[in-house]
Amino acid sequence: MPKVTSRGNVKKDELPATLRRSPAKAQRTFAKAHDSAAEQYGEGRRATQTAYGALKHSFEKVGDHWEPKAGHGPSDEQSEKGGAGKQKQYPSAEGVDANASKRHLQEVAKTLEVRGRSTMSRDELVEAIQKANRRESAAARR
What we know:
Blueprint: H1 17-20, H2 24-41, H3 45-58, E1 59-62, E2 65-68, H4 77-80, H5 102-111, H6 122-141
Antiparallel strand pairs: 1-2
């Protein structure tokens, strides 16, 4: 189902909830990438994965919404190695910018009030942020 109208406006009711709470640029990025992928691959999982892959190059998930990243580029191993079209799938960081500096990850963890963040490794920070994001998204759905 198209996410963009014929006039180029995003159909917000067609977007995932986390994107409805995100900046307009994030909504447009996801919607246009989804529509393009749906034309090429058909509706379904691959089109959605492709749209999230495009989104994660410019945005990261913080809590229950997406925020612009400081730099453009892949956010996790899945995005780096080829995305949805590849046969081998890699672990996704669920929107967390796993390639960001440890300092940045600690700042995001602080925003999300993750306890024990100062003693965590990069991988532990990514996992803790994923968990906090899931919790915030679930709370926003209630």
